[in-house]
Amino acid sequence: MSTLDPALPRLAATSRRDALVLAACQALYIAAISIDLTLTGLTGQQLAPVPALATLPFALITVAGAVVTWFAAQLIARIGRRRAFVLGAASGAAGGLVSVLAVMQQHFWLFCAGTAAVGVFQAFAQYYRLAAADAVPEALKARAVSRVMTGGVLAALAGPALAAWSRDWLSPSAFAGAYLMVALLGGLSVLLLAGLYRGGDAPVAAAAAPPPALPARPLREVMRQPVFCAAVANNVVAAMAMMFVMTAAPLAAVACGHAIDDGARIMQWHLVGMYGPAFFAGALIARWGLPRVLALGMALCALCCLVALGSASLRAFELALLLLGIGWNFMFVGGTTLLARSYRPAERARVQGAAELLRYAATAVATLAAGPVLQGVGWATLNAATLPLLVLAAGMTAWWVRAERRP
After folding, report:
1. Angle between helices 314-341 and 141-149 (to 10 degrees)
2. Which residue has the higher pLDDT, 70 or 335?
3. Has this prediction a pTM greater than 0.85?
4. CA separation for the pair 282, 142 (Å, rounded)
């Protein structure tokens, strides 16, 4: 006869506290990366020895994140989440300090090193949501992922404001103060993770003898599962559609005759859409089920494209980017929940690393392609080009749903 482990209430409380700590760290990370994304292009333009290199520091954030994400998963498996997350946050703090020094000394390549270190911070921070999902039972994974994502709601809006507030702290060195703020946010993450985070796995109701651990399968076998394919398709397509359209939107708005300040407001609506649903996405998944919420996310992304195709007015830009943000959130939270269901504990590091590497690589391609595609074919065609990606995600999701319904 099975008995309830008396340690379960304590473990459950630890899991809830860990989720709150991860949500706070997610907020600090989003705020820090928002500062970098807001000012790095301008700073690179000031420091670059030739104009062609002006965007290199900005690109290195994504490139460094893509390169490190696989190794981050392996390090998490080797030394544990707590130490690995502390190391990642410390890299963000160090990157901010290096950037401060580079701006004050007008040293372009040192600035590139600083932004690359922030990219390492980004690579580790991407595992916050997966750590939260692993720390709770199956039925609560979507809520845990959504709870961590709530940390980005205010931070996404606060980041640009923090950049404007702090950029003159170290005057006359333009923008150096903002990178000092990045260092402070990374340092605060270090303190939270080191002091409060425990990084445990989900508590499981114990019987008289715990079930034996299932052996790790080859990565190829895991990746052939419908649940894994649906998870990666939703995460990758959501990221590609979001970065493709979001990167081009401010440029397209200005090209359509709108002011630069209008472009900033468009991005604010997009950020609200990205992180606002985190307050209820988990509950929505619990009530409606994953397939419906994923389908709703794809439909909203498709509706974004249709709105953009129909009008170039400012309201159309704002509505399109808002819909895109909400659609991304539903697909991303749902895809992360599916990913957490696709692996056994012994497979976690390899599977998470592979999935995040695929997502980062696709995001980098979409980011680099957005500008040339916008210049080559225009805003309307760029939006239309995302629709086949959504069809692919819908097909992979339908495959998983059919596999789940088989006896």
Report:
1. 140
2. 335
3. no
4. 5
Question: Residue written as tokens 């599962």?
Answer: 225
Q: Which residues, at least 6 apart from 293, have a Cβ–Cβ distance to it below 8 Å?
A: 281, 284, 285, 330, 333, 334
6's tokens = 């008396």
Residue 34 and residue 160 in contact, taking contact as beta carbons nearer than 8 Å: yes
213 conformational bin, left if phi > 0, alpha if psi -120 to 50, beta if neither: beta
What are the φ and ψ backbone dihedral angles of 201, each rounded to 5 degrees? -90, 175
pLDDT tens digits, 218-227 = 999 999 999 9
Read off the pLDDT of residues 343-401 as tens digits, 9 standing for 90 and up.
888 888 889 888 988 988 888 788 777 778 887 888 889 999 999 999 999 999 999 99
> CA 30, CA 26: separation in Å to the nearest integer?
6
Cα 363 to Cα 119: distance, rounded to the nearest angstrom: 13
CA distances from 25 to 93, 135, 184, 193, 277 (A): 13, 16, 13, 8, 18
Cα 160 to chain center, whole Å?
Answer: 17
Distances (CA, A) of 342 to 9, 21, 132, 345: 26, 25, 15, 10
Q: Which two tokens stand for residue 379?
A: 């805003």
Contact 104, 45 (CB under 8 A): no
d(CA 398, CA 393): 9
- For residues 97 and 213, give the distance between their C-alpha atoms in angstroms, rounded to a whole number: 44
Structure tokens at 113: 């090193």
Contacts 24+ apart (CB under 8 A), 74-82: 74/349, 74/353, 76/127, 76/349, 77/348, 77/349, 80/199, 81/127, 81/131, 81/197, 81/199, 82/193, 82/194, 82/197, 82/198, 82/199
